[in-house]
Amino acid sequence: xxxxxxxxxELRSGPPVxxxxxxxFIGFFLxxxxxxxxxxxxxxxxxxxxxxxxxxxxxxxxxxxxEGFTFIEADLTDADALSAIFADHKAPSCREPRGAxxxxxxxxxxxxxxxxxxxxxxxxx
Length: 125
Fold this sequence. Notes:
With 125 residues, the chain is of the alpha/beta class. It has 5 helices and 4 strands. It is globular, with a radius of gyration of 14 Å.
């Protein structure tokens, strides 16, 4: 996206945007904003208990009311789940908010796992 003023137009005309952690604080608000702009969103979350899962479910209930939203309960480290998401939804635009900080080591491990799994998904395609 070269011109920030046109980000919504560019995303609306492309494939769905995959947001991991869609039930979390940052993921929820990102998904909500994209949906308001008419962008198709595939939300992914493992609904872990890092903080209140009921709050996460309440956020998903809000997102599910929007046209263009699909939710998949899956873990980011599950290569088969990622493969299915990319195959079923053609979602190469991946947005990964990392709001729940569990420390730099966890963040690096998660990003590393995501990169390795994503590379495996792309290799299979």
